[in-house]
Amino acid sequence: MEISRRHFLAGTGAAGTGALFESLGLSLRPSVAFAETAQPRRGKITTTICPFCGVGCGQIVEVRDGRVANIEGDPDHPINEGSVCSKGAALYQVAQNERRLRKIRYRKPGAREWEALSWDRAIPMIVERVRKTRDATWVGQRDGLTLNHTTGIACLGGAALDTEECYLLAKAMRSLGVIWLEHQARI
Amino acid sequence: MTNHWIDMKNADVVMICGSNAVENHPIAARWVMKAKENGAVVLSCDPRYTRTTAFSDHYCKLRSGTDIAFVNGIINYTLQNDRIQHEYVRHYTNATFLLNPGYGFADGLFAGYDEATRSYEKSKWAYELDAQGVPKRDMTMQHPRCVLQVMKKFFARYDVDTVCNITGSPKDVYRKICDIYTSTWAPDRVGVWLYAMGTTQHSHGTQNIRSYAVLQLLLGNIGLAGGGVNAMRGESNVQGSTDMALLYHILPGYLAAPAAAMQNLSTYLEKVTPKSNDPLSANWWQNYPKYMTSLLKAWYGDHARKDNDFAYGYVPKATGNHSYMALVEAMHAGTIKGLFCFGMNPAVGGPNSSRAREAMGKLDWMVAIDLFETDSSVFWKRPGADPSTINTEVFLLPAAASMEKEGSVANSGRWCQWRYKAVEPAGDAKSDAWIVTQLVAGLKKAYSSGGAFPQPIQHLTWDYGQDTDAHGEPDIHRVAKEINGYFTQDREIDGKTWKAGDQAPGFALLQADGSTACGAWIYCGSYPGPNKTDNRLARREKSDPTKDPLGMHPNWSWCWPVNRRILYNRASVDAQGQPWDPKRAVVRWNADAKKWEGDVPDGPWPPGAKLPFIMRPEGVGCLFAAALADGPFPEHYEPVESPVRNAMSAVQYNPACKVWDLKSIGDSKEFPIVATTYRVCEHWQAGAMTRNMPWLVELVPDVFVELSPDLARRKGIRTGDWVRVRSKRGEMKARALVTNRFETLFVAGSLVDQIGIPWHWGFAGLATGDSANLLTANVGDPNTFIPEFKAFLCDVAKA
C-alpha cells in the first residue's frame, strides 16, 4: 500500500481528534505532534509489520532511489501507536546491512570455505538431492500399512516467514512425504 | 492468546508469570501500563526480579520449575475461601460433571498409570454417562464424585506452608498474591494471566498452563474483556506458522496429521472427529470432515475425488514421535540425510545444542535459507571442528527480508496483518515463496517420469501465476485466496447459489463432498472475494474509541476465527445473554432485535441454546481434563534436574515426560545450582538477525550470567569476571553480572541458588559468544515435547 503522510493522517482523523483519544487514556499527542513537525518525506512510503516478536507493531518504511532510507513506528497503528522497542527501532539495519546475504553460498563436502553458485545451478542441484534422498528413504508400505513417507528428509523453520509462505512450505513438504516437519513453535 | 494485546488495558488485575513482557514484548507491555493507569494492580511472579517486576505493584519470587505448586496454591485459596464465580462455574465448566468410580489419585500418580510405557490409560478419567450417553451432572456440586468436590480434595494438599516450602516464596507475599488475584472472582472484576516461555519450557509445561486455565475458569475470567489465558508469542509469525502446521503432528487449521493406523479417510475421520450426545453441545469439531476434505481439494484439485478418498493416501502417515528433539536424535543416528532450515538456527536454539551441531555433520546435505550467515549454516567451521572431516554438503540461500516481499503475519492475538513490498530483495535474495515454488517446479519435472510414489508431486496444485510472472514469482494473493478457500463447482446452499471459483465467505459453508477447497479452515473469511480490496488482512480502519471503548478494532486487519477478537466470548454473558460486567460488554444479546451485538459471538445461537465452549464436546470449560498425557489435574513434580526431593509425592519428576538420554541428566551433588535461560530486549531468539545488526550489538555485545551477590561471594566472582558454567551436557564461558535480581532461596529446609543466562549467542555473526543451550537438557513435556530450558542444574566457577 503506497500512501502519503497526508493520506495517513486523513485516514484516521488523528490530527483533529487527539483530544478524543486522550479522553480515553490513549494519548496520541506525541505521535501527532511528531507527524506535524517531521520533515516532509521525499521517498515512497509503505507500511509493514515488525518482524521480531509476536506483538505485531506497525512500522513505516520510506524508500528513496530504490533503497530503504528509514524505518520508524507507525503512529496510526492501534497496538503500538508509533512506539517501537530497541529491535524495532533498528529494523533499518535488516534492510541496509553489509552483512546481509546477497549471493548463494555453497560448501562442498569436506571443504573449508564457501564457493559461489547461481540460482540456475543451485535449484536443480537441490532438486536432485531431494529426489535421490526421497527415493532412497521412501517407505510406501510397512507391516501391511501404507505409510507413504520419507524417513530421510527433515524441514525446520517458518516462524519468520509470512503465513502464505508457511502454507506453501507445509503443502510442499507434506506432498513430498516429509514427516520430520518442525519449527520454532516446538522449542 | 484467547484475547489480544490491547485488551490487557481492560483488566483489574494483571498477573505476569513465566514472562518478562516489559523486556521481551515491551510495546505490548504499555497496555499493561494503561491498565495500571486505570487502577489495575499488576503482579509479577518470577524466579528473577525483572524489568517487568520493576513495573509491577507486587513481586513474589519462586524457584524456577515450581509453577504448578505456586498456582495450585492459588487454586486452593480460591476453593477454601469460596472465591469462585458460582454461576459461571456451575453452568460453564465441568465442575458439575460426575467422574467414573475408576478415577483416583494416590502418591503422585493418577489412575491408569503404566510404569513400563511411562504413560496413562486415560479412559480411567472418563465422565460417568447417563443412558443417552450424556455426562451426568450434579447442579448442586455436592456429589462426592463431581469435579468440584474431587478437585477440592486434590488441591487442599497445596496449602500456603506446603507451597512456599517448595517454591521458596515468602509466605506473607504469597498470601497477598493469592488474595489480590482471586479478588477477580467477582462478576464485575476481571484478571488477565500473561505468560510466555517461562511457563511452557518445562517437563510439565502444558500442566503449568492447565493450572492457569483451571484458575481462570474458577474465577470466571475466560471469555471476558480484560481476562483470558494469554501466551505472548516471541516470533512475528509463530502464530501463523503454527496455524499453517509446520509441525509434525498437525495439518493446516489444527487438523491432526494422519497416523499409520488411520489407513483411509473414514478411519481418520472416525478417530479424530469428537462426538457428543448432548443437544446443548455445539461440538464444533463435528465439522472436521468438511475441513479435511476441503484441505485435500486445495492440495490435489481434481485428483482429490470421492472415489479415491479425496487423495487422502497422498498425505504421509506418521509412525511415532517426530518432534524437534526426536528429529535431532534421528539426524544424529544418520536416519535423516537431508535437512532444510528456513530461517531457523538449531545450532543455537535447541537444547543440548552441541548435539545438534554434531548431528548436522551426519547429514548428506543441508539447505539453509536465511538473511544472514547463521551459526547453523556454518556449523562445519565452528570452533573445535575440523571441516575436512565433515562431509555435509551445504547450500546457503539468501532470503528476502520482511519489507522485501508481500504477505501476512499473525500476531499473538491472532490478528493477521498484511505487509507490503517496499524494495527489491538484497542482491540475489529471493522470497521463501519463490524458493519453495522453484523447488516444487523442479520436483514436478523430476518426477514427471516416475520415481518413488510420484503422484502427490505430479498432482500437487500450484497455480499461483508463477509461470506468467517475469521473475517466476508466485502471486501471494492467489495463495492467500487458496488459504481462504473457494467453491470447486456450482453449489446451492440454503437457497443461495455459489459458482465454481467463488471465494468461500466463511467456514460454515465449507463442504465435505468436495465442492469446496480450503487451505486452512480457520482462515476462511479472510479473503472472501476475488479482488485485492477483498483482502481483509490488509484492512486499516481503526475504531472510534467512543464506540469501541474496549479497543477491539474489528476493522483493523482480520483475526481468526471469523474475526472474533475474544475467544469463548459466550462465557462473558449470563444465561440471558447479558454481560457479567455491563461496563465491559464483549457481546450482548439484544432481545428485541433477537441478535448478538459486539464482538463476533462463538456461534449464532441465542443465549442458552448452546453451551459456551463450542470447541469442546462437553460444551464447557474443563477444570478436569482427560485429554492430556500426564493427568487430568496439574500436579507438582520437580524438574527432571532438581536440587530437592519432591515434597508432594514419591514421584520425583513428571512420570510421563520424555527423557531422551538418562545418562545426560546431572546430579545435584555435582551440579547444585538451579539455572534458567531468558532473553534481552536488544536481541532476538537465536541471534541470527540481531547479532548481525551493529546498533544492537553495540547495546548488548556479550553473553553474561546473572548471579546473586551471596553466591558470587562464595565463589569469589565479581561483576565483569569471566566465569565458566558447567552442566552434565557441556560448559560455556560468560561474563558475570552480580545482581540482587537473583536471591538465594530457602527451599525444603536448605538454601538453593539460582542463576540465569540469556541464550542469544553463538559462534557466527558480528557478536559472538557461547550458547546457553550448550548446557540445557533434551528432556520434554509429554504433551508438546517442548524442552525443559527453564530449569536445569549447573555449577559456576571463575574462569
How does this structure look, described?
The complex is a heterodimer of chains A (187) and B (799). Chain A has 187 residues and is α+β, with helices and mostly antiparallel strands. Chain A has helices at residues 5-12, 18-22, 29-37, 86-89, 92-95, 119-136, 163-175; strands spanning 44-49, 58-64, 67-73, 104-107, 115-117, 138-142, 145-157, 178-182. Chain A has a 3-stranded antiparallel β-sheet with strand order 1-2-3, with no helix packed on it. In chain A, strands 6-7-8 form a 3-stranded mixed β-sheet. In chain A, strands 4-5 form a two-stranded antiparallel sheet. The longest helix of chain A is centred in the C-terminal third of the chain and has 18 residues, at 119-136. Chain B has 799 residues and is of the alpha/beta class. In chain B, the strands form 12 sheets. Chain B has a 6-stranded mixed β-sheet. Chain B has a 5-stranded parallel β-sheet with strand order 3-2-1-8-9. In chain B, strands 12-13-14 form a 3-stranded parallel β-sheet, with no helix packed on it. The radius of gyration of chain B is 26 Å and the shape is globular. The relative contact order of chain B is 0.14. The model of chain B has no long low-confidence stretch (mean pLDDT 97). The interface between A and B is large, with 124 and 174 residues.
Write a short abstract of this structure.
By secondary structure, chain A is of the alpha+beta class.
Topology summary:
The complex is a heterodimer of chains A (187) and B (799).
Chain A (H helix, E strand, L loop, with lengths): L4 H8 L5 H5 L6 H9 L6 E6 L8 E7 L2 E7 L12 H4 L2 H4 L8 E4 L7 E3 L1 H18 L1 E5 L2 E13 L5 H13 L2 E5 L5
Parallel strand pairs in A: 7-8
Antiparallel strand pairs in A: 1-2, 2-3, 4-5, 6-7
Chain B lengths: L12 E5 L3 H4 L1 H12 L3 E6 L4 H5 L2 E4 L5 H14 L5 H7 L12 E2 L2 E2 L2 E2 L4 E2 L26 H9 L4 H8 L3 H12 L8 E5 L1 H4 L4 H14 L10 E3 L6 H6 L6 E2 L3 E2 L8 H8 L15 H13 L23 H9 L5 E5 L3 H4 L3 H8 L4 E6 L22 E6 L8 E4 L4 E5 L12 H15 L8 H4 L17 H9 L1 E2 L3 E3 L2 E3 L17 E2 L40 E2 L27 E4 L4 E4 L59 E2 L13 E6 L15 H6 L4 E4 L1 H7 L6 E5 L4 E8 L6 E3 L2 E3 L1 E5 L20 E2 L11 E7 L1
Parallel strand pairs in B: 1-2, 1-8, 2-3, 8-9, 12-13, 13-14, 25-31, 26-28
Antiparallel strand pairs in B: 4-5, 6-7, 10-11, 15-16, 16-21, 17-20, 18-19, 22-23, 24-32, 25-33, 27-28, 27-33, 29-30
Helix pairs in contact in B: 4-7, 4-8, 4-10, 14-16
